[in-house]
């Protein structure tokens, strides 16, 4: 379970013709977690203010209902099935980068910071990377100039002998480990990490502003990812419990970052985007997981709750305040939009799935484009306009379900939230998301409405498949030697376990 706040900060200084932009990306927060999206306790005044001053996207999607593939998609502008962030070990299995993963982001992929570098940007990632741990996958090898954070989720504590605690890096150097040097108190939920990440962001922005340096800041924090945490001043302050405390601290931090941009006089040169990498993890709810509002199921699934995300664009003086957009958007669009803002062309030697959202953001246009919902190696569903066709349905296996693991707690819809993988290729299940945002009432196969919508979507699927060149799957193999290589002691004592096919717990 991965939680993170992603501040996509792409910048150029105020004196420059070009612009600075920055963005927020929050991990594993759900569509329904913000006051601006109807969360009943209304505890996110800063994010709500950000929405009031900027543009709210109501139909914005991540590229996969799990963290690693979504982040790879965000930074490459490409679906995980193209950039390699998927597994072929099991049909429609989501996969991520556990500690012992062998794969990672391939060198052949061009990441947003690599491209922005060409336009003189300084790029920083704060928080969780999640695109591989081996040296060749280090963020500083893929376009980032600075890093403060960890390669993985803050799972643990581990014994740091058999299994090391997750390391924390400053640039190339490992500066400590979670639970040891960077404390997370699982009993009280107290950790100071969000405060550390906030300070890193403020310092980085100040430094770039002082040297009139365009910057891209990717603020990838993970307080809302189980095990959820907050610093002392936020503990016990939310009606929603510890998860709400974490959300409040993130909200407070976003407010401080936006305020900092304003005080430095660079808010009009900075494009900020706030979103999440997957839907709230309902398996952890209500104590450690958030809300997906009216949508079906959560993280890990290709129902709306797994992939529709809260999203806010903020750019004072450019984006009209109080805007609301129904554009079908994707995290991959942040790649294309950022390049466009920086005056760069997207790479022409490969398929890019993101689109440039500037006409939407600045002129209120609507661009017709489909959304592809993948789970692992399988195209599960497609949205076009208000229609969504499911080609496959699956929540999770009976085996997992019998152990109490439920991706759709309290939300079973007969024939839809199936515990066996059900193929509907020849007769897709169709929903009208305007009349039925919760995906509860499939349209009648015999209706004219069904036939017209499915015909249109089938055409889009054919086109998509015809041009699809799947990447080499990066998430197939785990090897404990990869994990042990981080360990500062015990190397000689623990013989590496031979490589084995990764068995990816669908929990994360
Ligand atoms: C957080 O920081 C405060 C102030 O420095 C300190 O007292 C507290 O022990 C820290 N908490 C954790 C969990 O590290």
TrEMBL record:
InterPro entries: Alkaline_phosphatase_core_sf (IPR017850), GALNS (IPR035626), Sulfatase (IPR050738), Sulfatase_CS (IPR024607), Sulfatase_N (IPR000917). One of its GO terms (cellular component) is lysosome. Binds 1 Ca(2+) ion per subunit. Pfam families: Sulfatase (PF00884), Sulfatase_C (PF14707). The modification 3-oxoalanine (Cys) is found at residue 67. Keywords: Calcium, Disulfide bond, Glycoprotein, Hydrolase, Lysosome, Metal-binding, Signal. The active site is at 67 (nucleophile), 130. Ca(2+) binds at residues 67, 277-278. SUPFAM superfamilies: Alkaline phosphatase-like. Its cofactor is Ca(2+). It is an enzyme of class 3 (hydrolase). Glycans are attached at residue 192. PROSITE patterns: SULFATASE_1. Residues 29-343 form the Sulfatase N-terminal domain. Its EC number is 3.1.6.4. It is found in: Lysosome. Homodimer. Belongs to the sulfatase family. This is N-acetylgalactosamine-6-sulfatase.
């Amino acid at each position: 379970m991965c939680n993170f706040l992603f501040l996509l900060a792409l910048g150029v200084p105020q004196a420059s013709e070009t612009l600075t932009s920055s963005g927020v990306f929050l991990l594993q927060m759900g569509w329904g977690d913000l006051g601006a999206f109807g969360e009943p306790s209304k505890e996110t005044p800063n994010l709500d203010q950000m929405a009031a001053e900027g543009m709210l996207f109501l139909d914005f999607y991540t590229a996969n209902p799990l963290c690693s593939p979504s982040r790879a998609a965000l930074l490459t502008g490409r679906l995980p099935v193209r950039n390699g962030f998927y597994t072929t070990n099991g049909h429609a299995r989501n996969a991520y980068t556990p500690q012992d993963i062998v794969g990672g982001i391939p060198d052949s992929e061009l990441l947003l910071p690599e491209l922005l570098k060409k336009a003189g940007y300084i790029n920083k990632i704060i928080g969780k990377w999640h695109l591989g741990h081996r040296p060749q996958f280090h963020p500083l090898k893929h376009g980032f100039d600075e890093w403060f954070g960890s390669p993985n989720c803050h799972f643990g504590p581990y014994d740091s002998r058999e299994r090391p605690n997750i390391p924390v890096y400053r640039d190339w150097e490992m500066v400590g480990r979670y639970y040891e040097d960077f404390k997370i108190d699982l009993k009280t939920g107290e950790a100071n990490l969000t405060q550390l990440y906030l300070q890193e962001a403020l310092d980085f922005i100040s430094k770039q502003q002082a040297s009139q340096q365009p910057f891209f800041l990717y603020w990838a924090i993970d307080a809302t990812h189980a095990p959820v945490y907050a610093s002392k001043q936020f503990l016990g302050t939310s009606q929603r419990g510890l998860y709400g405390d974490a959300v409040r601290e993130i909200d407070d931090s976003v407010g401080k970052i936006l305020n900092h941009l304003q005080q430095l006089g660079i808010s009009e040169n900075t494009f900020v985007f706030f979103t999440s990498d997957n839907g709230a993890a309902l398996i952890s709810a209500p104590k450690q997981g958030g809300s997906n509002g009216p949508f079906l199921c959560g993280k890990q699934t290709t129902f709306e709750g797994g992939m529709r995300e809260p999203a806010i664009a903020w750019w004072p003086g450019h984006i009209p305040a109080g805007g609301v957009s129904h554009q079908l958007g994707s995290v991959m669009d942040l790649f294309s939009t950022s390049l466009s803002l920086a005056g760069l062309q997207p790479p022409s030697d490969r398929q890019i799935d993101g689109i440039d959202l500037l006409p939407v953001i600045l002129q209120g246009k609507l661009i017709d484009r489909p959304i592809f919902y993948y789970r692992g190696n399988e195209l599960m569903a497609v949205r076009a306009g208000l229609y969504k066709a499911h080609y496959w349905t699956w929540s999770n296996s009976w085996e997992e379900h019998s152990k109490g693991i439920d991706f759709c707690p309290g939300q079973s819809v007969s024939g839809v939230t199936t515990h066996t993988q059900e193929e509907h290729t020849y007769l897709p299940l169709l929903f009208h998301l305007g009349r039925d945002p919760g995906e509860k009432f499939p349209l009648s196969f015999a209706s004219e409405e069904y036939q017209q919508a499915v015909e249109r979507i089938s055409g889009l699927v054919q086109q998509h498949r015809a041009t699809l060149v799947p990447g080499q799957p990066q998430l197939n193999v785990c090897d404990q030697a990869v994990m042990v290589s981080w360990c500062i002691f015990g190397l000689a004592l623990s013989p590496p376990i031979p490589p084995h096919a990764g068995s990816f717990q669908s929990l994360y």
